[in-house]
Each structure stands twice: as structure tokens, then as C-alpha cells.
Amino acid sequence: MSVFRNVVFIAAISGLLAGVILAALQTYATDPLIFKAETYENAGGHDHMAAPAPAAEATAPADMQAAAPAEQEEAWAPTDGFERFAYSALANIVSGVAFALILVAVSELAGGIANWRQGVFWGFAGFAVFTLAPGLGLPPELPAMPAADLAARQVWWTFTVLGTAAGLALIAFRKSLPLAVLGLVLIVAPHVVGAPQPASHETPIPPDLHRNFIVAVTLTNLVFWVVLGAVAGFVRGRFMGEQGALRSSLA
Amino acid sequence: MTTVSSAIGAGVSTQSRNLQLAMAALLGLFVVGFLGFSQMEVVHNAAHDYRHSMAFPCH
Known about the structure:
Helix content of chain A is about 75%, strand content about 0%. With about 250 residues, chain A is mainly α. Residues about 45-70 and about 245-250 of chain A have low confidence and may be disordered. Chain B is mainly alpha-helical. The chains are: A mainly alpha (about 250), B mainly alpha (about 60). Chains A and B meet through helix 1, helix 4, helix 5, helix 6 and helix 8 of A and helix 1, helix 2 and helix 3 of B.
């Protein structure tokens, strides 16, 4: 299991670091926009099944613990303020390691990330696959925004991610023109099919708020993926260097 | 004996190596799927802001 262990080791370090950075970036760049959108959500009467966050509290996250009495039969949700931040940060870090596992394992199949600069390009690929491609058809949404059926969107998202990843791999690692064309088709096809869209895009969310959110989500994810790839390449280089040195000293 | 290779686990058989890499990737996909796609309301609520900020399809 040495290969598995090494991949987990590299993924844990790079995912942890990139996840912490992403959590910090989201706290300043995207979370305030989500809280703001929730004020429209509650004012607009849109029936949001989960994440109850009364408007007044969402705008003042610091002093809300006292003002949140037990509500109806809702599922558990973190209390606004520190608890909510802590769960978001935890999700970011765990997902950072999970994305790192995928990135490191797939890159090993292609020979491995040699150094931090190569890692940056692997990071760009991860960004294109997991953020850019699905975001074209399904732009980042704020609470209170209408959306098509959840399951249909999740299916489209999944196929878009798989198609883009396969397409990029065919273009980058198969030195063949027909396969490169096929790769391009795989990348474009999900957008020709089109993402599931809601019947109406009418929303109480101001267009400016949504646009800022799209920019914030895209850029925070870009930083996350570039850091993830670069750190994975750096750690792998150091790690393999030591292993190589160890081997030659034993020989 | 100085088989310093650029690929992790170059000494392992290709089949075993690919299997282990596939396991690592599947583990990552499973965790991402759970955080981003799980319909359980508790998971949704805990990871709500994360899901919006990662542009996962959410509610």
C-alpha cells in the first residue's frame, strides 16, 4: 500500500493548507455575500427549506447567539456566528484534502507532478474541471435564487466535470489529432446539451450582488486550486527527493 | 539498486499501482460527493456556505 500511503500523505499536506486558505478567503469574499442574500431570501418569502437564518441575524453575525430561540421542527443547523463559520471551515479543509486526493492520484497516472510550477498547471486543470466548466452552465447561485430541479443539476454537473477532465486528459496526454478533437468535443458537449435552467430567473437578489458573488467564487476557487497544485508538487518533490536519497544510501 | 524514479511507487507492479491510485481517487470523489451532493439535511446545513461558495448545485 506504499503508493496509496504516499498519495494520502501528499494530499493531506497540500489539501490542509489549500483548504485553510480557501476557508479564510471565503470568510472575507463569499460568505458576506451569502449572508446578504439571505436577507432578501427572508424578506422575499421564498420558501427555503433549510439553513434558517433570520434576516436581522444574518447581517450581524457577532451578536446573535442570544437572539436565536429554538425554532420549529427544522433539521439541525449550526448557529450563526462562530459555529457556522467553524462548520464551513471544516467542510473546506476536508474537501481540500479530498480534491487533493483526486488531483494527486490522477496526476500520478500521468507521471506525477514534478515540482511546484508543474503543480500550478495541474491546479489550473483542476480549476477548469471543477469550477470553470460547471460554472459556465450553472453559475454560482446565492440563496433565494431560482434553480432547476436539484437532481438534474447534480447530474449535469457530474457529467460536465467528467467530460471536461477526460477531454483535457485526451488533449494533454495523447499525442493524436483525432483524440484531441474528441477531447474538445467532450469539453464542449455538456454545454451544447445545456444545463438545466429554472422556468424563470426572477429573483429578489440584485444583479450586482450576484455578479460580485460569481467573481468572488471563481477567484477564490482559482487561488485554492493553484495553491493546491503548487503545494502538492512541492511536497512531492521534497518527499521523493528524500526517498531517493534514502534508497541510494541503502544501496 | 539506485532506482531513483520520478514516479511514486515505481517499484510496485503497474496493476497494484493503478489499483492504489484508483482507490485514492475514489476516496476523494466519495468525500467530495458527500460534502457537495449529500441530500441529508444535516450535511446540507453544516456545509451550506461551503456549497454555495464552491458553486455546487444547492437546494
